[in-house]
Amino acid sequence: MGMKSYWDYIKKYRSLKEYHNIDSAIKHKDDVVSIDAANQQLTKLPRQLFNLHNVISTNILGNRFTTFPIVITKLSQLEEISFASNDMRYVGPEIGKLKNLKILILDFNSFSKLPVQIGELSNLLYLDVSMNKNLKSLPSSIANLKQLQELHIERTSINKRDINLIKALLPNCVVITD
């Protein structure tokens, strides 16, 4: 019996043993499935992170990233990422490599746009880009996210016409707006 809702995944991730120190996680690479490096004033991630083949959940909330670290896209098993409350302005096309991603949290950043490749995340169930005040639109490839159950776009600059288009493109998705 497969998991049906992103809440099932949230429960799963919360039950995992988390590593709070990235260097320690790298030393125990075969045991690591979850990294919680929240609020550590990080500006970059070590290249050795790509050796953590079993990681399915990362929380990098509340750090000082300005761009989405490409090394994260080497973690091919990732199902959940939170980069909330950083100062990110850019996500590169490499994000499309995260084919297993189910939960992507990018709220409270400084995005003005997202890459077209966001539409390649075909297993995505939950996307939060709220509180990105400069975000004026989402790429049309968002229509490819047929599994998406919840989309948070509150406190963005996306206009009502585009919000209605998003709702039409994703009829099975709850779109949360202001």
TrEMBL record:
Entries under InterPro entries matching the protein: LRR_dom_sf, LRR_domain-containing, LRR_R13L4/SHOC2-like
Pfam families: LRR_14 (PF23598)
UniProt keyword annotations, A-Z: Leucine-rich repeat, Repeat
Gene3D superfamilies reported for this sequence: Ribonuclease Inhibitor (3.80.10.10)
Superkingdom as given in the UniProt entry: Bacteria
Keyword ATP-binding belongs to the record: no
Keyword Metal-binding: no
Gene Ontology CC terms, in alphabetical order: cytoplasm
Domain annotation Disease resistance R13L4/SHOC-2-like LRR: ranges: 94-158
Record-given protein name: Leucine rich repeat-containing protein
Species of the source: Mucilaginibacter gossypii
